[in-house]
Structures are given as C-alpha cells and as structure tokens.
C-alpha cells in the first residue's frame, strides 16, 4: 500500500486523551477520584524526561471544575511542565462548594493551561430543549469568555453524551474542538475520545492502554459501547442509580450525568 492510500487517521500518531475529575490526597471508594500520589505517578510515567512512554504524550484533561484542579493538579502539572485542558461547568463557577471560582480559573490560564466549557448546569445535552441548549452552549461560552477575557472554543459533553443535534448546536455556538468520554484514539464525527481515568487503574494498566498490541484500549472501548447500550435500554434515571451503586457514590444532582 502506498502512503497516499492511507487515511488521515491512520497517518496520525496514536495519541491518548486522559480524562480526570477530582483529585484527593487520600483514597476514596468513589471510583472517579484519583489520589494526588497516583496523578503524580501518571505524570512521571507518561511525561517525565525519563518517561517509558515512547509515543506522543497524552493530553491531560479535567472535567467539572473541581477545586482540586487548582489545589492539587496545578502544582503537579507545573512541576513536570505539562499543559492541561480544564472543562468548566460555567454555572457552578464561584457558586458551588468544592468547585473553582474565577480567580482559580484565571490562575490556571496564567500558568498556560487551556480552559474549555462543560455546559452551564451539567445537563445531559441530548435531553435539552432548544432554549436549554442555548443556555448550556452559547451562554456558557459567552460568560466564560467575558469573565476570563479570552476565546473559549473547546467543549466537553457532560456525561460524554451527544447526538447530531447537539453537534450542530455546538458548531453554531462557536465550539471547534469537542470531547467525549468514549475511550478511543481515532476521531469519530470530529469528536475527540478520552480515557476516563479511575482510582483503580494501575500504572501497568495505563501503560497497556498505550500499547496497541495489548488490546487494552479496544477492550475498554467495548465496555463503553456496552455501557452506552445499557444506558439506552434502562433509561437515564435507572441507569444513574445503578451507576452510583457500582461507583460507590451517593446519588446527587451530578451523578446522573457523570457516567
Ligand atoms: Zn462532568
């Protein structure tokens, strides 16, 4: 096969995008929490000069705007000189306990990190009416731009959920870089996939995700497809209860859209 026969995606180096939520100093039963020690280990494994990682460095992304992004992730990222992307639920900024305010977001920006949107209220976008979608996408972007004084052109879908209507609305609202939580390295419909990093993932397992021959990423992607099927079959409310039970989290307003 000549190189011109290869599609653009096949020519792209395999790059993983990692998704984090909250960092804590101590371990938690809630599977979405990664300890600061684990995160420091991930940076050393994948980004340090003596890293064993041969391919392109992963992109580190954080969803929801937890205060731990500023308190714990920022110093560790600075130590390894790694730039990350932070996706912010605009309506929670400065108004919800445990989440960042505008001064913390500005500090992330000043340190060279990228800020993107994660909706206004963390609503699942395919369920929104046109008016709600406008608030979640366009208004969220305008408020972030106004308060941070810079262009916001990236967006991660709450709960990783989107459909054709949401994609169209995102483009109309001015977002050019879109992220979901489906674990894959290829672009699908222009949307970037990410591996949702959990506290139970070991460094050995993370390394396997980068090794195409291990099949670990393919297996993770299959699990995600099965989960999406169950979500559709059971409906979001019942699935949210099941999700909270599996992930050891008390159901709350956020839980329905996390998985
Ligand atoms: Zn989220």
TrEMBL record:
Any one Gene Ontology cellular component term annotated for this protein: extracellular region
Identify the CDD domains for this entry. Answer: CE4_NodB_like_5s_6s
**Domain (NodB homology) ranges:** 56-259
Q: Which Gene3D superfamilies match?
A: Glycoside hydrolase/deacetylase
* Localization per Swiss-Prot or TrEMBL: Secreted
Instruction: Give GO terms for biological process.
Output: carbohydrate metabolic process
Name the UniProt record assigns to this protein: Polysaccharide deacetylase
Keywords noted in UniProt = Signal
């Amino acid at each position: 096969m000549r190189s011109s026969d290869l599609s653009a995606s096949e020519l792209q180096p395999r790059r993983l995008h990692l998704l984090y939520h909250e960092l804590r100093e101590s371990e938690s039963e809630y599977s979405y929490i990664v300890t600061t020690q684990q995160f420091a280990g991930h940076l050393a494994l994948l980004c340090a000069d003596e890293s064993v990682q041969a391919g392109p460095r992963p992109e580190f992304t954080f969803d929801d705007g937890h205060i731990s992004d500023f308190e714990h992730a920022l110093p560790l990222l600075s130590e390894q000189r790694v730039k990350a992307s932070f996706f912010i639920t605009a309506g929670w900024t400065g108004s919800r306990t445990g989440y960042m305010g505008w001064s913390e977001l500005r500090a992330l920006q000043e340190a060279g990190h990228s800020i993107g949107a994660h909706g206004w209220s963390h609503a699942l976008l395919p369920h929104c009416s046109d008016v709600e979608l406008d608030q979640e996408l366009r208004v969220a972007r305008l408020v972030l731009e106004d308060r941070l004084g810079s262009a916001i052109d990236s967006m991660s879908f709450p709960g990783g959920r989107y459909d054709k209507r949401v994609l169209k609305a995102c483009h109309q609202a001015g977002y050019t870089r879109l992220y979901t939580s489906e674990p894959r390295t290829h672009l699908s419909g222009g949307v970037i996939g990410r591996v949702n990093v959990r506290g139970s993932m070991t460094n050995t397992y993370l390394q396997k995700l980068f090794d195409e021959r291990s099949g670990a990423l393919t297996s993770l992607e299959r699990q995600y497809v099965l989960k999406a099927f169950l979500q559709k079959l059971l409906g979001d409310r019942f699935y949210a209860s099941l999700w909270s039970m599996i992930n050891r989290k008390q159901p709350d307003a956020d839980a329905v859209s996390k998985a």
